[in-house]
Amino acid sequence: MALKQQFSQKQELRLSPQQIQLMKLLQIPAAELEQRIQQEIEENPALEHEEVAPQESLESEEQEGKEEFDFSDYFDDDTADYKTQANNRSKDEEEYRVPLSGERSFQDRLIEQLHWNDLSETDYTIAEVIVGNLDESGYLNRSVDALVDDLAFHFNMDVKEAEVLNVLYQIQELDPAGVGARNLQECLVIQAKRKANGSRTKDISVRILVECFEAFTKKHYDKIAQKLKIDESELKLAIQEILKLNPKPGGTAKGNDKLVPQIIPDFMLNEADGNFELTLNARNMPELKISKEYKNLIRTFSEGANTSKTDKQALTFVKHKIDSARGFIDAIKQRQETLMLTMGAILEFQRPFFLTGDNAKLRPMILKDIAEQVQMDISTVSRVANSKYIQTNHGIYLLKHFFSEAMTTDTGEEVSSKEVKEILIEAIENEDKRAPIPDEKLMEVLNKKGYNIARRTVAKYREQLNIPVARLRKKL
């Protein structure tokens, strides 16, 4: 086969490294930006924090025409190119970090309790293998025969499944109650039996979990009452006992000490007499500047010490680091400007909501609406809205909260799907929990209020609101 050459033309969109860096920074919320800046400082010695003390200005120096680089580009004063200090707190405030003490896992606590059991060396090894295979919730997700194989291959122990089960049952008697269970039913049964003290209600709760677990999960209360031959009041009390049980006992040991993620808003919005003041929350963000040491290196090379090959290589390295640092500082600045521009457009678009905090005031708004207003790409607006929060006089909201689809009423008026969801929530909250409203009836409720909506759309909105189907909302 003969080789042939041919020319072809095609269009490609290639992003510069600076643009890629900006896109990545736009996605980062305020809670993660400080960490990203610190990472850049560690990787680039030419970038550093701005010192709090007053800075001396550096004078620009004239360079000889024979120089290979324009050194004057690397001389300026030490004023931060872009300040990321918080603008919503006093300068006198100090940030304190409280060290957290180490917390033992529930597995460690189980092993500690096992020391009180009169276990043989073999049983103790079996117990360690079982405890080591418990997941974070306290469940044993591996089969007994798989554990037998592990003991044979890794410990050269020939044990029977009955021996492993015997040790497993001993672990299930330890605290917290329910650990070592192999499924949810077994976990709840262990806890219910331990709480049973001869009372009829607690005995019924055990029977429900043992004999009617599937009906319980599907809330077929009539079938449970009929099978156990109990009345509604007894069933209700037993169900209340079951709901007190812990489906994830492995988290009990550290449940009270578990840190709850704190929402750090990216924007702060204050409203007074219809006037808005929008600011960026850049708390704990350092002021950035080019390293004075690297500026001095550039000055040293500019004074004639750049004749050797080694000097030129060193100069190239220093220049690259300074350019990279400046590019990062510019990207941070552009990120903040893009955030403010986009949030400002959202603020104007949803002005009635920000004045009242009423979800019914939200206008239908999609990414394209804001992208056209700020003259940016839809993907850029999407990155800004992703994982960002704004603190307002009415609470803290995720930016995605303000985006919604449009729906048309009987009168032809366009309303936000948020408004429809609010009515949906209200209808479900006010329903008779003994006979919850199915999606078909919810559709009729909305249709009577003038919203043209199909049953499948009702189901979609209900799922978006994390509301279960009518059968699972049933209560006694």
The overall number of domains is 3
Rg measurement, Å: 33 Å
Fraction of residues in helix: 40-55%
Q: Mean pLDDT score, rounded?
A: 82
Q: Runs with pLDDT <50, length 5+?
A: 52-71, 74-102, 253-259
Portion in beta strands: 5-15%
What oligomeric assembly is this protein in? single chain
In short:
With 476 residues, the protein is α+β, with helices and mostly antiparallel strands. The chain has 19 helices and eight strands.
Question: Layout of SSEs?
Answer:
Elements: H1 17-27, H2 30-43, E1 47-49, H3 106-114, H4 121-132, H5 144-155, H6 161-171, H7 184-195, H8 200-211, H9 213-217, H10 221-228, H11 232-243, E2 267-272, E3 275-280, E4 288-290, H12 292-302, H13 309-349, H14 351-356, H15 367-374, H16 378-385, E5 389-392, E6 395-398, E7 406-408, E8 414-416, H17 417-429, H18 439-448, H19 455-464
Parallel strand pairs: 2-5
Antiparallel strand pairs: 1-4, 2-3, 5-6, 7-8
Helix pairs in contact: 1-13, 1-16, 3-4, 4-6, 7-8, 8-11, 12-13, 13-15, 15-16, 18-19
Describe the 3D structure.
- It is a single chain.
- The chain has 476 residues and is an alpha+beta fold.
- It folds into 3 domains: 203 residues, no CATH class; 146 residues, no CATH class; 72 residues, Arc Repressor Mutant, subunit A.
- The strands form 3 sheets. A 4-stranded mixed β-sheet has the order 3-2-5-6, with helices on one face.
- It is extended, with a radius of gyration of 33 Å.
Keywords:
single chain, 476 residues, alpha+beta, Arc Repressor Mutant, subunit A, 3 domains, 4-stranded mixed beta sheet, two-stranded antiparallel sheet
